[in-house]
Write a structure and sequence with these properties.
Shape: globular
Number of domains: 3
Number of strands: 22
Number of helices: 9
CATH class of the largest domain: Alpha Beta
Bound molecules: S-adenosyl-L-homocysteine
Helix content: 10-25%
Largest sheet: 8 strands, mixed
Radius of gyration: 24 Å
Distance between the termini: 51 Å
Strand order of the largest sheet: 6-21-22-20-19-16-17-18
Length: 466
Amino acid sequence: MEKNQECIIKIEDMSHEGEGVGRVDGYALFVKDTVIGDVVRVKVIKTKKTYGYARLVEVLTPSPNRVEPRCPIARQCGGCNLQELAYPQQLEFKRRIIENNIRRIGGLTDVSVEKIIGMDNPYFYRNKAQFPVGTDKDGNIRIGFYAGRTHSIIETERCYIGAPVNEPIIKAVREYMQENNIAAYNEQTRTGVVRHILIRCGFTTEEVMVCLVINQKKLPAPEKLVEKLKAIELNVQNPDNWHISSIMVNVNMENTNVILGTACTTLWGNSYIEDYIGDIKYRISPMSFYQVNPRQTVKLYQTALDFAGLTGNETVWDLYCGIGTISLFLAKQAKKVYGVEIVPQAIEDAIVNAGLNGIDNAEFFVGKAEEVLPDFYQKETARLGKKLTADVIVVDPPRKGCDESLLATMVQMEPKRIVYVSCDSATLARDLKYLCGEGYKVEKCIGCDMFAQGVHVETVALLTQK
Ligand code: SAH
């Protein structure tokens, strides 16, 4: 295979990143924008020893599972790599990824993963959007999304997985910038003002936060922005009551791809929005981690709660607890919940959130789970003169999974159940392997689709003592 060579292949597999995979004499080609079952003409763009990458030129025979993407910029945009695949097949694709990882990386060949919990409507579901702002060759403001693997911005006001309120907000910000001569940030020269528009909304409360991320200490003409935003009509569907309740500025003057800087100021309204998951109310500040798909989050947490099997007498740990979301869900049905989280502001939110809901049996610690839990275990074991135990331990780590020292302490505490919530099934599989070598078995495992049209998936696994 050589660069620029064209060939016809049948797509027979899909990579974890959602690219179709076809073969020519055993040589694998990865082709973006194709799905299993397609027969396609492709042009080779990059070759390695045993595999290469090709660009889709033409679909000759479409797969029965191929659908026309709703989003007109599906191919250029770096997000939503599965838009050409029909939704039921997206779910099956994700189920297989989880199962393959658990079997191959975890070596747990007898574990089967249940059917993924899917969405009723797999569009317009995100409660958070971060639109980059830039300038095109002719000096016009560009607001949209990054093209795949680049920082060139594809202009779009409507994202098909974003909240409908984003559209009028972007229009208003654009007008504010044009009318007041406020430049977009330029990554090369590091000049200009507006870097990103962050929009967060509460799907239940219908509260909206708009936060401009800027490259200087103060936003010019802030009253003009407030005026513009307050004047827009957000009610996309009557009798809904979507309304902006918070307008903020975040200062990020660093040369970095990280979107938010550390300092936030409020221009108008509150410095947070509130939202519900189930009947629990949460306060969310611009910097806090909060699941982006609220309609699925309730299903995810309910699954975690069901797996925890609480009766009201249990001591539960919720490790990597963020703003206390899962902790508070569990607290209503447990005797005591301890939450551990590394970000101090998130723990401040968690404590406020417990108060908002009248929950007094949850206690929170700031620190690394792999340090806080072993320390607490050793001190309490010494103090009590007997081993400290827990009834249930829930973990929800970031993509890199849990530290082995944390898993070791968890095992020492002999919980009857461990509920592992994971956003990366490869590290989940690695950690399940460890726990299964230490007296636990995987009782159940199910995925929950929090990222329809994209390749990511959340998994919940229940482990019990063998
Ligand atoms: N369970 C929460 C948060 C899950 S995201 C929810 O569903 O909303 C993972 C969280 O782990 C983030 O809040 C992150 O800040 C935190 N985190 C990352 N590394 C950590 C560590 N070593 N110890 C404790 N928390 C950590």
